[in-house]
Records
---
Amino acid sequence: MLAINPYKRFITILLLCFVPFIALRFGLLTVYYDDFHELSYSQIAYAFLHGLRFDASTISLFIGLPLLLTLLPFGWARTKFWQGFCLWTIFTSILFLTFILIADFIYFGFVRRHIGPEIHLITEDANLMIDIAITDHGFSLLAFVIVALILAKLWKTIFHKPVRSEHKPIIRYSVIALVSVCLVIAGRGGFQYKPVRATDAFSTGSAAQGYLTLNGAFAATHAFRSSAPKNIQFMDDDEALAILKNNTLLDKEQTLDNQRPLLRSSPISTDKKPNIVFLLIESFDAIHFDYLRKLDQLEPFGSTPVLDEMAKNGITFTNFFATGQRSMDGLAATLAGIPTLPGQPYIGKGLEQNRLSFLGSLAKTQGYETYFMQTSNRGSFHIDLGS
């Protein structure tokens, strides 16, 4: 049996890993075209291109290490046992990712988005999920198993061959070092400050383009790594609605729908559209605000003269409800009007997969041009989504 070139095999397997991701993305666009019909050809092309970033991150996480181990130059690493162990681990991982992609593809048809934090609920009731899969998708599961067995036979025939020895180990060591660095970069999704997250798929501001960019395996993996939901005892709906009306409605305002209590009519004229500057200051307590310090009869620091002047000549709210105890909670409520409930995801942990009305998006519907500037590192808190 002829020895196989380990480098050619490495590249071939790596390219094969992208096939199910690209195929399912194309299937998503074709089968659920109504969800993506608003996208132009250039936006679709960009979604496919940008999607490779998320595909590579997922592949690096699941397949990068065993694929790298097939290149080890040691004698024992060229044995049939070691190579077989690594190759079957790779094949099983590809099969697992493909199964997740297909499951997410079917799930998308029901909820019109990729799988999110609800994956915790699915895993907590595995017996029910298995029963549903067998009952509703039994033939599809059988077809998947048959195709997997056929592919396993082809996989063994093509890749399970003796590995050609390396006459110059230094070359193999150099390749392994280079590949290791590339896998780390791919796993992080690039050279940016923070590792890539599902939020980055929606950086263009289009939900449809974000869904096409993202893949189900990436979404499921990152959602599963988030905190599990908590059991919550909610307030009675009627009581909550009464409290909300008593504390939020202005004079002459009326709610339009009890199911959407914050949707209300206002007699205020909207003919004039003034310029709006929205300042969002992170980690800034009221105790540091001289205007408020004076109201509490505290010695001012002299550090907020501009804000003091704005408060003096404007309207200052000194009694309000906080949406959470952390910045991420406040950002979701401020930019999207969504308070982060206990156990629920925030922006960057799955919330962005929902079709939200961000502050900037709402302004654009009213004819405004929006600009979002931040002094922190680009992508910090993912607040660029609000533009």
Note: Residues 277-340+357-386 form one domain.
---
Amino acid sequence: MRRIRYVCRPGILLVLLLVAGGLLAGCTVEITSTPAPASSGDGGGQPGVVHAPAGTPVWAELGLTGRLFFVGYDSAQQQAIYELDLVSGALRTLFTAPDNALLNEVAAAPDGQQLAVAYAPPPPEGEIQFGFASIYTMPADGSAAPTPLIARRGETETFYNISWPLADFVYYAHYLPGTGDLGETIYTARVERFYLPDGQPAVLAEASSWPRLSRNGARLAYVTDANELVLADADGGNGQVLLPGSAFPAVDAPFFSLEGGQVYVSAAVTGATLTLLDRLLGVRLAEAHSVPSDWWVFPAGGGDGAQLTNLYEIGLYGDLSPDGRHIAFITSGGVFVMNPDGSGVFQLLDMPATGTLNWVP
């Protein structure tokens, strides 16, 4: 057995929540794993640096192909966007966050040539980094730094839960301030998609986040602020609740099976609770991604689901392989792969990862 490590997951005021609220918890699980790749001695963490294993990767017998994109931390706890070549085992650094910047998430375009990044650049000197991110794009080969795509209009709004399922559309959650009945500032999240040719955003669902589109582009899954898992048309229409808010203390990070007949979710185990600081700041458990969770699967047409794993991990986010034979996912303890039925959990990288993960051919 080994002890899983946990690190802070950047997000909306997450640094304050994790430090003061004490959300990090240890657990011991038994997982087949491979050690973290060694950094090169002359510039690990710099764009373009490749950490290549000696010989074939230890997971070669699994027959994995394609590339994984994710945000991770190097041995010095520096954030970077990584590409893992599943055939060669080479781990490439594409972009390293400057000091006092935050890389929250990354999403790959369907052809794997471009990346969308939820990124908070360094604030002016002397100011606090709160992690309020805009959406940027960059080449997937790391040949250029991120450039703005969707900018924040206010200081305390942010974009997160980004995905790029179709060539013309980027889906994401938009968290922005508003005014309550008593004149107080309240924050709400809504699901939007951005039409890339003319740059027009559209609101698909209010009081919701975690949008993921099916592989055929026909169905959209998202989670409401009431902790409901909803399936809808790709434009947000005809939404139907698949899981009521009472099904789990918290549910998030949905994605579809290859044919769209099943929906995978990360669900918090019974007994997960909020910290005192969470309650003081008005955080609801349905919005708290940093609670121990496991993978579950449910029929898209409704019916009983099944628990697939017993990981009790933090920050789960997964993606199906292009051929539908495997699921890759990240946690705050590393990068993993498993079979669609939850068996054969194998740790590809023993390095902290955060945000999102994408598997492209």
Note: The chain is about 5% helix and 45% strand.
---
Amino acid sequence: MSKVLMIFVLLVVSSCKKEESTYNPYKSTSTKATVSNDVLFSYDNKEYKEENLPKAIRFAKYRAEHAQYTEFSNSIRELYVRVSYMQERQMTDYYGRKGVVPSLSELFKADIDDDDVKKYYKDNPQLFKNINPKKDKDWLERVRYTRTIEYITNRYLTKLNEIVDKKKLVINILPPNIKEIGVDFDKFPRIGAKDSKFELIAVTNYFCPECRKVNKDISKLFSEFGKDLSYVHVGHTYNLGDVSMDSILAGKCITKSDPKKFWKYQRFMFENENAKGIKVFDKKKMKKLLSLAVKKLEINKKDFYECMDTKERKYEVSESILFFRDLNIKEIPAYFLNGRHISYREMGSLVFAFREMKSRLERLDEIKK
């Protein structure tokens, strides 16, 4: 009996050894590492790591990481807004499909009836100047679409603010840091200490309505955070040579003349009603506006316009514009807290989005400790 058992054990051991020594053409036998972990790629025997990436690759990497972050974080917010409303409406099982969360349109479809749509049409005539109920048989559905979008958006933002404020939804991922791609933000106008706890960078424009509207929130942030906050102004436009570029150029020249006067110029441009109606390439009106600003700020007119006309200054401004265009910043204003993009549009408010990102940065710093 013992001999039989010994033969069986030998057979098992032998088969195991054979299995281990079986040749695998897909498995490398080399134990030598050919590339270190921090090398992203190499070209012509030159290795590239995070710290020495070419400018174009740094930009591409930032764009890709930002797009991924945006889609991921927005998906998280949108899902848990829907989950929260589903729970609130006691929809524990959506049409017998467990684990399926209804879309926002499905959640609120029953809230908007024909009477509500007709009232919305009556209360908002400015939105429906091209709709005539007597001539357009589909007018009710066209109005319903606009009403539904507004209704859902308002409820989405209300619920998002609620679940974030109550810390029911806590997001622990960060967008890529714009300060790590090589731009020198020290060359742009700044209010507050350079080493402040919170640095808000604004990529903005004096003429876009949204920029003028959201700029008012900056005062609220300074009231709340005081000396802990610094603000960096980056003028931007999508058209080289337009009035916005002239306004950025003017800001550079005013800063050169007297850095303290830039912020008076900035306030003048954001608050002056004449700036609202200036068209993109209306140079005549823009010149009148700048002349008014120069006079109000007591800037030497001759020196100012000579500065505006220098190739060096124009190149500096156009280089900045192209830099942010290459980053694929599709909408302005765009805001960054300590280098991290703030999704103020998705959050419905710059102040709320600032607080949420501030909490996230502080929470992740604590986790690292």
Note: The first strand starts at residue 41 and ends at 43.
---
Amino acid sequence: MNLVAINIQYGIGRVGVFCRNLGHRLPRPIFNFKGFDFLPIDTLAPILYIITMNRQKTKNLPVPPLSAIAIAIAVAAAAAPAKDTLTFAAVGDIMMGLNYPSSAPSLPPEDGALTFESVGGALRGAGVTVGNLEGVLLDSGGTVKRCANPNVCYAFRMPERYAKHLANAGFDLVSVANNHSGDFGDAGRAGTARALKAAGIGFAGFEGTAESYVLEKEGVRYGFAGFAPNVGTVSLHDHQRARELIAEVRKKSDIVIVAMHIGAEGPKSARLTRQNETFVGENRGNPYQFARLAIDSGADIVFGHGPHVARAVDLYKGKFIAYSLGNFATNTSVNISGISGYAPIVKIRTDAKGNFIDGEIISAIQDGERGERRPFLDPSGACIKEIKRLTEIDIPESPLFIDGKTGKITLK
């Protein structure tokens, strides 16, 4: 937090009288030291604005010298260190339990309160935490989707109250661009938006209604956009529109994060092909190509998901890419055996312009000692070894080095 010190006698004291007379509450100082009140810089600018706008109306009130306040703000702003290092955490698919069908719900113990218990510290330890919400938040109703092949058809509907579990775990942003966000039609999308807004979580990926989002946090504007190959989402197949949307978000943001739900599914799809990938006859896009398109259009970080397994990580023009973060918290209906149960948490640091500095893979697995289907920290480092292996064989030219024991990601 950037602070500014103003002498009580010559600055804040008179400003306080003035603001109270105008009906405005003066921000409480963080602390006082030797006659100086220390306040966040961003609280002084509104005071200056109030004084300026009301000066003519308050000729009989004690008006502090505008020049003194303006100088104090300018000097403090110039002296305050810029936020030159940003931290991010990202995970893959999240589906916290099902209330559909209503006759046979599959909800977790403690109504989901324990879902992120083991990994919450890692998630909350970043400046911005991102995940993929695989399904809808809706208490009841909605028009369930119809599938051409019932054998590979799943409809994911979670209780709206479960959004609070995401907030409590530290999630700031979630992508709703995936093949399950439309499982219950417009009612499902509306319920999801309603629940996430109520929980204070930003989201992006719904075509036409929530294509992007800008999160303002600690003085930094984080732009967010989500893409998928599915109806009702912002299409990753429309490259021109994707370029335009990312460029639009770039203009409004300091940092741009892109989420892509892309690639074939299953344990046999852990390898990056650098080609268009298909699953059950559907074109699931080219992860390698789309990640580069996103960065060329203005993205600083690209987080992928969709294959239900972890994939390689990469660096392009100094910007970080995770091609797939696999399954993270999938309470039911999703295969979590073997590598499908790997639930990596990728944490990275960038500079203020989004250029990669370093990172870390934290290993977690969705398999508790009592058969619980939620992410548990994994001391064996299985996720680290897998992502390191895939990065080395699929992107041998990558400038990233992954320490197989600690999970640290650095430049070679």
Note: The chain has two domains: 3-79, 85-411.
